[in-house]
UniProtKB/TrEMBL annotation:
Protein origin, superkingdom: Bacteria
InterPro entries: LTTR, LysR_HTH_N, LysR_subst-bd, WH-like_DNA-bd_sf, WH_DNA-bd_sf
Residues spanning the membrane: none
Source species of the chain: Ruegeria marisflavi
Domain called HTH lysR-type: residue spans: 5-62
Pfam families registered for this protein in UniProt: HTH_1, LysR_substrate
Family designation: Belongs to the LysR transcriptional regulatory family.
Protein name per its UniProtKB record: LysR family transcriptional regulator
PANTHER family: HTH-TYPE TRANSCRIPTIONAL REGULATOR LRHA-RELATED, TRANSCRIPTIONAL REGULATOR
Keywords for the protein's UniProt record, in alphabetical order: DNA-binding, Transcription, Transcription regulation
Length: 292
């Protein structure tokens, strides 16, 4: 008997795998948690396979689930391509989104992917710069939406996340033990005064190993275990790790603010702002890892 896979069910399966759980996936899909769970159960019954390992706290893919995931991604993508190519999309144009370098990962790639699936004919122009520069561009009307990292909020912005600064270093590294402590910091980084003030208050001598406007230079230096850096919780790259709490002074909480999300700029901008809010809410917590 011929069995057919349902694209809606496959989309839910892919979203669960990408988001790491049914609850988060339900939010992304605008469905109830029970509806997503039922879809996954029907998919397993159709294939006669267990696709998810539910024995732990979270949800992990089984070997069969990993194999299906590759096919499911292709089938969902092909479905979306056919719909986009053969139907008249009501939305076209361009949206300019400004994001500071250090919070692009990991939320913004998900935002762009999800937005493109809903509005394939709308181009998102991503600008990455410092918060102060992005605010200048926004004030001149050169950006539709911007995100900033700031110590406070304001009347013209919406705080979508509050995250503590964390010390980050190389996996298995020892740069955090050195004295003076070697730092890799951006010249215009808003975190810089807070980082230096915390070290001074703790009586820890420090030295600037790198002072640059290029985040790649900072990332390379820290990855080589030549310095440490400070980033908002959950925004560090996969090859960097958070330094064990207590090894260095605690750092303050900063806000991620959204400008332009409530300015009545139309449905396209509002939908992009909604995705930004949703994805940045999942940052932080559970990202602490010791470096030795």
């Amino acid at each position: 008997m011929i069995r057919n896979l349902d694209i809606t069910t496959l989309r839910s399966f892919v979203t669960v795998a990408d988001s790491g759980g049914v609850t988060r996936a339900a939010g992304f899909l605008h469905l109830t948690q029970s509806a997503v769970s039922m879809q996954l159960k029907r998919l397993e019954e159709l294939l006669g396979l267990e696709l998810l390992d539910r024995s732990g706290r979270g949800i992990a893919l089984t070997a069969a689930g990993e194999q299906l995931l590759a096919y499911a991604r292709r089938m969902v993508a092909l479905n979306d391509e056919v719909i986009a190519r053969l139907t008249d999309q009501g939305f076209e144009g361009e949206v300019v989104l400004g994001v500071p370098h250090d919070i692009v990962y990991p939320a913004v790639p998900r935002v762009l992917q999800q937005f493109n699936a809903s509005f394939p004919r709308v181009k998102v122009q991503l600008l990455s710069s410092y918060s102060s520069r992005l605010k200048e561009l926004y004030d001149r009307g050169e950006c539709d939406l911007i995100l900033t990292t700031e110590a406070g909020g304001g009347d013209h912005c919406e705080t979508i996340a509050e995250l503590p600064l964390r010390w980050v270093g190389a996996a298995g590294g020892s740069a955090w033990r050195q004295r003076p402590l070697r730092l890799a910091l951006g010249r215009r980084c808003l975190f810089r005064p807070k980082v230096i003030a915390a070290l001074d208050a703790a009586g820890i001598p420090w030295d600037l190993a790198v002072e640059t406007e290029n985040d790649r230079t900072i990332e390379a230096t820290v990855s080589a275990d030549l310095a440490v850096h400070a980033m908002l919780d959950g925004t560090e790259a996969k090859h960097l790790v958070q330094i064990e709490p207590g090894a260095l002074p605690d750092l303050p909480v900063h806000k991620i603010n959204l400008y332009g999300g409530a300015d009545g700029k139309g449905q396209i901008v509002e939908e992009l702002a909604a995705l930004v809010r949703q994805n940045f809410k999942t940052l932080g917590s559970g990202h602490l890892r010791a470096v030795g």
